[in-house]
């Protein structure tokens, strides 16, 4: 059985090819603020995880301090007897 044709004549591929930003878009200047300055992609990403850098640095300092100043006591393991 052959595929049926589109009854409406609408072709989404032709619509996608026809739509696009025109060369003289009157709204381009008014929309430019959305993608520059504090709204640029980098600035939006940078503000997505507030405190992540400080938290990571604090965790590294904590782990290093625990390893150097409070070494694990190797004499008490699970298999050792406490007599």
Automatic annotation (TrEMBL):
Pfam families: NDUF_B12
Topology class, membrane: Single-pass membrane protein
Region Disordered, residue ranges: 1-23
Keyword line: Electron transport, Membrane, Mitochondrion, Mitochondrion inner membrane, Respiratory chain, Transmembrane, Transmembrane helix, Transport
NAD recorded as keyword: no
Location relative to the cell: Mitochondrion inner membrane
Classification via InterPro entries: NDUFB3
Name listed for the protein in its UniProt record: NADH-ubiquinone oxidoreductase B12 subunit family-domain-containing protein
Lineage: Eukaryota, Fungi, Dikarya, Ascomycota, Pezizomycotina
């Amino acid at each position: 059985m052959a595929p049926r044709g589109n009854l409406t004549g609408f072709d989404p591929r032709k619509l996608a090819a026809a739509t696009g930003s025109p060369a003289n878009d009157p709204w381009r200047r008014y929309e430019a603020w959305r993608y520059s300055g504090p709204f640029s992609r980098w600035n939006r990403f940078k503000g997505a995880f507030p405190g992540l850098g400080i938290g990571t640095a604090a965790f590294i300092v904590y782990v290093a301090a625990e390893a150097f100043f409070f070494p694990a006591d190797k004499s008490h393991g699970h298999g050792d007897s406490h007599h």
